[in-house]
Specification:
The protein has 222 residues and is an alpha/beta fold. Helix content is 32%, strand content 11%. The protein contains 8 helices and 6 strands; from the N terminus they run H-H-E-H-E-H-H-E-E-H-E-H-E-H. The strands form 2 sheets. The protein has a 4-stranded parallel beta sheet with strand order 3-2-5-6. The chain has a two-stranded antiparallel ribbon with strand order 1-4. The longest helix has 16 residues. The protein is globular, with a radius of gyration of 16 Å.
Length: 222
Amino acid sequence: MVKLGNDWDGILADEWEKPYYKQLHSFLKSEYSSQRIYPDMYDIFNALKYTSFSDTRVVIIGQDPYHGAGQAHGLCFSVKKGVPLPPSLVNIYKEITDDLRVAMPEHGELTGWARQGVLLLNTVLTVREGRPNSHKDKGWETFTDRIISELNKKEQPIVFLLWGANAVKKASVITNPKHYKLTAPHPSPLSAYRGFLGCKHFSKANALLEQNGIETIHWENL
């Protein structure tokens, strides 16, 4: 049983006992004991720990964690202070700067977003070192579908930012017409120039929140 320390504990109480999750847990136990896996096992669920269900007003969905040493810490696209900004995050900061005309911090720790109600969720929550997508199709997609389906039930509108093909697939789980789905290519240097840069998702998200009487996100506030 995982303890998240907020309302997600009650919402997900039955998830840890499901056969698929028990299988995933066994797989992870083996992986963490025999391979170098990111993030640290105590950081896997940080997105849910930092941003409660009730506080969530924006969801950013990425692919899987950074696969380099010292990078991933359980929040999609985020790295701890002191860690060089990965290329995807450089592009995210570039888009925010161009979109909102605000200066971004030099560090890449996005906990300030999480505390404002931005759920920073990857579709897959673990990865082998140097092997992106190595934990794909092991059960995490079912788990993150459950997270999104619970958020889909909320009456208060949520803005979902879906970046990259794996994230865009999650759009099918978001069926409540109260919510908003903004899609773009992944901010990786391989795809950012195909439509992530210039997407203006940050100003659009704030405009959607504002028109629904919901407090906007201070994207520069980290």
